């Protein structure tokens, strides 16, 4: 029989030690009547991420994102958002399945990978969901006749590349 020590810190800094035999389950505190129960806890699913406007190609500026995750146990959820530009955000607690809105600014033309994860009130973290955000350079000039020419005569492009040392 396998024995493990489970340590939990309760309110007021009281440390409680438990010897758990066999299969380990999560130790939960019922917030309504402060009774202690043991239950199995499941992590929330990966968040569904939507962008107001629907496109991942956008202009520089502030954009609105919507997040929604469902916890199979119905626990409240907090979102951890890595915006992909060096900024991270932890949200407040929300009901499972509630869609939340967050705004974020992408002022620089670049490609970003945003990742969001949901964590329930028992600290179980689900899988992450990602989205690639592209802020292209404005007013790119495309010379369609020249591109069509290069497509028709691909060897000409190879010759240009050789003579002009294009890499």
User: What is the residue-mean pLDDT, rounded to a whole number?
Assistant: 76
CATH topology of the largest domain: Immunoglobulin-like
The domain tally reads 2
Strand order of the largest sheet: 8-7-10-11
User: Kindly, what is the distance between the CA atoms of the first and last residues, rounded to a whole number of angstroms?
Assistant: 65 Å
Alpha carbon gyration radius: 25 Å
Could you explain the architecture of this structure?
- By secondary structure, this protein is mainly β.
- The chain folds into two domains: 3-39, no CATH class; 48-134, Immunoglobulin-like (Sandwich), CATH 2.60.40.
- It has two helices and eleven strands, in the order βββββββββββαα.
- The protein has helices at 144-152, 154-164; strands at residues 3-9, 15-21, 26-29, 36-39, 48-51, 61-68, 77-82, 88-90, 100-106, 111-120, 129-134.
- The strands form four sheets. A four-stranded antiparallel sheet has the order 8-7-10-11, with no helix packed on it. A three-stranded antiparallel sheet has the order 5-6-9, with no helix packed on it.
- β7 and β8 form a beta hairpin.
- The longest helix is centred in the C-terminal third of the chain and has 11 residues, at 154-164.
- It is elongated and about 70 Å long.
